[in-house]
Amino acid sequence: MYQIELQLADQMLSGLASFSAPLPIENKAQLSAVLTQKPVMVMLHGWQDNAASFAPLFGKLAEHFHIIAIDWPGHGLSAPRAADNFYHFFDYVDDLAQLVALLDQPQVVLAGHSMGALVAMSYAAAFADKVASLVLIEGLSPLSQAAENAPERLRQGIESRQRYRSRAHQRQNRSMDSFLQALDLRCAVNGLLPEQIKPVVERGVYQRDGRWYWRHDNRLRCESLYRMTPEQVSALVGSVQCPVLSLIGQTGYRQLKMSQSQALEWQQLEQVEIAGGHHCHLDSPERVIGEILLFSSNFNALTK
Fold first, then answer.
1. Are residues 53 and 128 located together in one domain of the fold?
2. Which CATH number belongs to the domain containing residue 135 in this structure?
3. Which one of 20, 25, 30, 247 counts the least CB within 10 Å of its CB?
4. Is the separation of the CB atoms in 113 and 49 below 8 Å?
5. What is the pTM of this model?
6. What angle do CA 17, 23, 27 make, to 5 degrees?
7. Which GO terms describe its molecular function (predicted)?
8. What digits encode the pLDDT tens for the residues 39-73?
9. Can you tell me the distance from the alpha carbon of 26 to that of 29, in angstroms, rounded to the nearest whole number?
10. Which of 163, 198, 221 is the last residue before a domain boundary?
11. 117 φ/ψ angles, rounded to the nearest 5 degrees
12. How far apart are CA 233 and CA 266, in angstroms?
């Protein structure tokens, strides 16, 4: 794996790639000679994770794809958004649109986990011509809410920002005694073994004056001011034209397991259960790799 930096209009995205490239990448020409012979797969991590979430998948997948796994703004090694920004969901879709434009490929394969899956799906709905296929790991479509809940959602979102502002100094000073403490915390939260989550934690912390701190922007914890209605989400689902592979953990979010009628809302969707929980791609990376390669071979997405 190689470190990569990609310059968007107002944001530099850090990440990991299966190939070496100039740092930073600021224009299409810098990638034109690199991204040949194989399709490009863009990997999009979940909330408060980072690009290293996909590290176990790189090896075998990189034999078939050029892989780019990014750190979303405010995650990993990517800088936070501007001080007046609170990470609106659709801004991630804009980030992805800028990234795909920079890659300058006829089409890309998008693989997303959790929040990254929701962003990938939303982009594929709006830019169907740019996406060859989707791999959605423990995530399907954006969260929705009935229209009549909009006032309460707005209130909750504003109040969460007020709480953030009142506690901003306290949060900045929160620290941990050691890297091991940070690792133990993530193991407890995600139900993973240390060796499974260690790469994510390594990319997600920094040390200063003998203390350890999380890199992610604390504004990520603020609640959304709005959510789409179920009808709006259904419109997105119906607009995804490419083949979709949904991978769900056997002990992950049960609401992601679709009934036959729900699956019919998608034009081309296959769902497979994987041993593990919400981070099933870390629990069972070999199985996930195998399912992705099998899925891709079914519609000639692989260049062998």
1. yes
2. 3.40.50.1820
3. 20
4. yes
5. 0.94
6. 95
7. hydrolase activity
8. 999 999 999 999 999 999 999 999 999 999 999 99
9. 9
10. 221
11. -65, -40
12. 12
